[in-house]
Every structure is written in structure tokens, then in C-alpha cells.
């Protein structure tokens, strides 16, 4: 099942992807994709509604981020060996976690904003895990039972700000730099552990990142277990699993995104996230 949100004729509505076509299910379903995915009765109702739902006119629709409400956004750094090797850091022996905040979140086709104070806007293709149930001290062997869905994430980073100090918070949290979507893909439609999926970034139609989720240093069950040792996880929390090699700052010469570029992040079987780049407006 592939569920998302869209603004249709000025109203936020539940949408689904059926055979590659965006449809609008009826039947009184809530405009909350995650709530549907974690409720078996709502899922059954949604399946029936999707089968007969009318297609949405693309001209009347703007896709939105696919969660009605965001919980914690927990990102993982240096989780591919090739990316760790191209970075200024050693290969980690324990997952490297950092937080993003929701003011950075944008949806499919929304512009990624390059801030006026930097020309170091970088791309990072990532697979995101959306939790349908939470808990504390979750065992690895039980972790996948807490996953409701997967989606695509582009961890847009302002590199010169990221590397101003040992903490990455500011460089990873500029407004309007973190696209997510376009749909939540239910966990039963994704290979176990999210493994074996090709993950790519195209910048202006040129492939700049190309890897496979088999190459994660710390797999998804371990990430969930480690985070839950420290904090209580809740439904709607997101774990963003890391990016492979090929990022712009590590290239020679560096390749940063600029106004007029188009960035496409794709995870096999999950979806493609397309966003243009624009400069921040002068105040």
C-alpha cells in the first residue's frame, strides 16, 4: 500500500498510488496515512476504497509530505562504508545519530532553498523508516515489528555550516532543505530490513550517487534498537538511515546544488523524490 497527502483544490486530502496513478480514496478515511497503516480495520477499508477510487487531475494537486504529523526525525551519519571513506571521519564503530527538525521538511516538487549565507548546499539520498509503534529498549529481533512504512528522504546539508564545529545540528537544519516522500510504502511491500534496494541521486539527470541498501554498515533493526536504548520511540518517529558515497563536498572539484538545478533521489521500489533548487529570497 502506498499512501500520501496532497492539497487538492486547496484542501488537504488522503491520496494513494494505484498502478502508478494517484487516486483519492473515499469512504470517510482519515487524512492521515500513518494512522491507516497501523490500524488493520482502516487498512482493509482503505484497500477497498483505493481499488475504486477516481484518479486525481495532476493540475489540481500538489503532493505534500506524506505524514500528517511528524515525530522525531533521527538521522544516521556515515552509515555506508564508501561514504565514511570519502568523509573527514573514521569509519564508525557505533551508529552516528543526529536530529533534524520539522522546519526543514518539504514535500515532493517543493523547492529546496539554498540560503543566502552559503553556496555549499549538498544532496544526500536516504531510505527513511517510519515507525508505527514505539517503545523503549526494543530488541533487534523485534525491531522490524515496529516499522509501519518506508519512504525517500533527501538530507539536504549546508556543508560549510555543518563543519563549523564538531556538532552538525545547524548545517543539517536549514529551513526547507529536507524533502521527504512522495508516499509512505507499507512495510509489507518492502523487502525484509529494507535490504537489496538500489539508491540513487540524479542532479540535472546525471547520476551522482548509486549504491544499494545492502551496504548499510548498521542495518535497520540495529538502528532502532540502539536509539531505543536512549529514548522512547513513538509512532510517527522517523529514522533516516544514511547516505552512500558521491556527495558533493567530497568530489574534486566539489559539486554543490545551485538555483536552477533539479535533484532526484530514488530508492528502488519506494519512489522517486524530485525537487528543484532555488535561492533564498533577499529580505
Automatic annotation (TrEMBL):
<dbReference type="Pfam" id="PF01557">
    <property type="entry name" value="FAA_hydrolase"/>
</dbReference>
<dbReference type="GO" id="GO:0019752">
    <property type="term" value="P:carboxylic acid metabolic process"/>
</dbReference>
<comment type="similarity">
    <text>Belongs to the FAH family.</text>
</comment>
<dbReference type="InterPro" id="IPR051121">
    <property type="entry name" value="FAH"/>
</dbReference>
<dbReference type="GO" id="GO:0046872">
    <property type="term" value="F:metal ion binding"/>
</dbReference>
<dbReference type="InterPro" id="IPR011234">
    <property type="entry name" value="Fumarylacetoacetase-like_C"/>
</dbReference>
<keyword id="KW-0479">Metal-binding</keyword>
<dbReference type="GO" id="GO:0016853">
    <property type="term" value="F:isomerase activity"/>
</dbReference>
<protein>
    <submittedName>
        <fullName>2-keto-4-pentenoate hydratase/2-oxohepta-3-ene-1,7-dioic acid hydratase in catechol pathway</fullName>
    </submittedName>
</protein>
<feature type="domain" description="Fumarylacetoacetase-like C-terminal">
    <location>
        <begin position="72"/>
        <end position="278"/>
    </location>
</feature>
<dbReference type="InterPro" id="IPR036663">
    <property type="entry name" value="Fumarylacetoacetase_C_sf"/>
</dbReference>
Amino acid at each position: 500500500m502506498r499512501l500520501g497527502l496532497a492539497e487538492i483544490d486547496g484542501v488537504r486530502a488522503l491520496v494513494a498510488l494505484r498502478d502508478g496513478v494517484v487516486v483519492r480514496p473515499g469512504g470517510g478515511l482519515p487524512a492521515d496515512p500513518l494512522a491507516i497503516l497501523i490500524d488493520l480495520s482502516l487498512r482493509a477499508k482503505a484497500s477497498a476504497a483505493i481499488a475504486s477510487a477516481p484518479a486525481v487531475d495532476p493540475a489540481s494537486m500538489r503532493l505534500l509530505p506524506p505524514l500528517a504529523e511528524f515525530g522525531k526525525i533521527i538521522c544516521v551519519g556515515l552509515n555506508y562504508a564508501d561514504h565514511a571513506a570519502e568523509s573527514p571521519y573514521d569509519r564508525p564503530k557505533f551508529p552516528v545519530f543526529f536530529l533534524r527538525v520539522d522546519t526543514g521538511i518539504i514535500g515532493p516538487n517543493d523547492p529546496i532553498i539554498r540560503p543566502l549565507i552559503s553556496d555549499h548546499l549538498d544532496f544526500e539520498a536516504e531510505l527513511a523508516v517510519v515507525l508505527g509503534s514505539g517503545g523503549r529498549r526494543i530488541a533487534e529481533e523485534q525491531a522490524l515489528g515496529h516499522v509501519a512504512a518506508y519512504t525517500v528522504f533527501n538530507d539536504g546539508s549546508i556543508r560549510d555550516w555543518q563543519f563549523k564545529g564538531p556538532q552538525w545540528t545547524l548545517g543539517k537544519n536549514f529551513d526547507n532543505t529536507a524533502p521527504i516522500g512522495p508516499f509512505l510504502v507499507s512495510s509489507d511491500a518492502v523487502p525484509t530490513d529494507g535490504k537489496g534496494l538500489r539508491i540513487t541521486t540524479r542532479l540535472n539527470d546525471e547520476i551522482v550517487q548509486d549504491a544499494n541498501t545492502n551496504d548499510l554498515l548498521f542495518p535497520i533493526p540495529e538502528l532502532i534498537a540502539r536509539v531505543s536504548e536512549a529514548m522512547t520511540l513513538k509512532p510517527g518517529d522517523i529514522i533516516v538511515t544514511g547516505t552512500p558515497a558521491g556527495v558533493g563536498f567530497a568530489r574534486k572539484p566539489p559539486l554543490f546544488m545551485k538555483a536552477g538545478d533539479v535533484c532526484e533521489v530514488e530508492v528502488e521500489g519506494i519512489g522517486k523524490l524530485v525537487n528543484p533548487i532555488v535561492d533564498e529570497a533577499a529580505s
